[in-house]
Amino acid sequence: TRRAVWFRRDLRLNDHTALAKALEHTKDDDQMVLFFHIHPSLNESFTPRHDYFFQTLKSLVDRAEEWKAPIHFIHGDTEEAFRHLLEELEVDMLYFNRDEVGFGRERDESITEYLGNRDVEVYSYNDHHLHGADEVQKNDGGFYKVFSPYLKKWKQLQKPAIQKVDHDQLSSSALDERKAFSEGQRAYDDLIKKTAGVYDGVGEKDALERLDHFLDEDIYDYDERRDFPAIDGTSLMSRFLRTGAISIRTIYHKIEEDVDFRKNTSGVDTYISELAWRDFYNMIYHYYPDANSTEMVEKYRGIPWNNDDEVLGKWKEGQTGFPLIDAAMRQLNETGWMHNRLRMAVASFLTKDLLMDWREGERYFSEQLVDYDPASNIGGWQWAASTGTDPVPYFRIFNPTRQSERFDPHGRFIKEWLPELENVKKKHIHEPSKMTEEEQKEAGCIVGEDYPEPIVDHKTMRERAIEMFKDKA
Ligand code: FAD
């Protein structure tokens, strides 16, 4: 019997449901083949997100090589690539960790049908989340639209166990048929050549190290430190979760094992509820499959958002004249990651101060974020735009200057990303345009030349945003 395990966004060799199950089903001289599918559309758009993803894939490929369980690459449109796999390898069974949302869900459904028609048995699993989209239900069987009751139910449910992978068994059953897939191998090599970014942590080993570091200390006061972008107070797990370099079960069980629950645990509780947000948004996107393009709340579907490329460009580049917003966008552009507090602030700014369409922001994040996750990103954007199922109310609009004073009081984060403001005094760091000419000269920062004037007046735009929503509410 020949089993194939399809790697997708689960780029690791530990605690991997599809791999563990395939090995569990393996007997005597059964064989196993590991593979990844490269779609030709990747050559058309290669964004920072892809750059990071392929670096993670490389780290999996290298690791699998060490374990004598090489990864094969199939290449081409999905059906064409799978036809080639079947012709070359006569696979009897396919194993993968399924997607419940978006493009992945459609692809999984069509490939399951395609293989089913060719007598290949398909086994797919919920692996990416602690609880899949239909596991956390109301008592009447419906789904939750609001997070807090969802969280209450989520906490009551038993969490899935670690899916142990037997390394020796993997090495002894794995096939090496890479010669038959040279075209796929070339496509992989070409993509790896394109990768150039330098990132803070790539792949399984880095993920586990970073998690240990976070659980040693930072998790205990996560609730107090997580909102301050100048502090390294969050876990940075999102990039590893998105690529699957770490399993969500490993994170959950390591917390249970490693955390000293005698210490203050409000940080731990807050952290666990963040993991539940990830499940929540996956569930929401599952039940609102059009949420990538359509407002979840029907009455807000006709909002007349602005459409101005110049304004959008200034937001993207971090040239709005609001220091915290600009510093955040430059952090994103340079590192592929942005702090959560700032994601909320820049999303609110784009939609409520610039009145721009949230879909534009969602799209830009999808290109730039190394942790881009459609469900969480769409959820976050529709939350900020007040169009989601459990959003920030449209009349409670973030004031970008107050956010800056509150969450970066000394301007440390701002100065890290906006060198032009380096010598601006603390009392002006949140509003450099308030400096007198004399003060600007002294700070070596002429507003309008070295750093932009504010692109809008917050008070005016706030009123216009509220009007825009009121008209529809
Ligand atoms: P931590 O604070 O350490 O949180 C731990 C984990 O919990 C995260 O890794 C993540 O998996 C999960 N988590 C935390 N907050 C949220 C949240 N609000 N929603 C869903 N999951 C959460 N997260 C993504 O993973 N991908 C995205 O594309 C994404 N886009 C966002 C867009 C907007 C507009 C907003 C407001 C939030 C978005 N988030 C997204 C959620 C959150 O900002 C990131 O998960 C977080 O900043 C990642 O850093 P961390 O791993 O250090 O987080």
TrEMBL record:
PROSITE patterns noted in UniProt: DNA_PHOTOLYASES_1_1, PHR_CRY_ALPHA_BETA
Q: Which UniProt keywords apply?
A: Chromophore, FAD, Flavoprotein, Lyase
Q: How is the cofactor bound?
A: Binds 1 FAD per subunit.
Residues that, per the record, bind FAD: 222, 234-238, 271, 274-281, 371-373
Does this entry carry the keyword Chloroplast? no
- The protein's Enzyme Commission number: 4.1.99.3
Q: Which residues form the Photolyase/cryptochrome alpha/beta domain?
A: 1-130
Electron transfer via tryptophanyl radical, annotated site positions: 305, 358, 381
User: Which terms does the record give in the GO molecular function aspect?
Assistant: deoxyribodipyrimidine photo-lyase activity; DNA binding; FAD binding
Its required cofactor(s), as named, are: (6R)-5,10-methylene-5,6,7,8-tetrahydrofolate; FAD
Reaction(s) catalysed (UniProt annotation)? cyclobutadipyrimidine (in DNA) = 2 pyrimidine residues (in DNA)
Q: Cite a single GO BP annotation.
A: photoreactive repair
- Similarity field: Belongs to the DNA photolyase family.
Q: What is this protein called?
A: Deoxyribodipyrimidine photo-lyase
Species annotation: Halobacillus litoralis
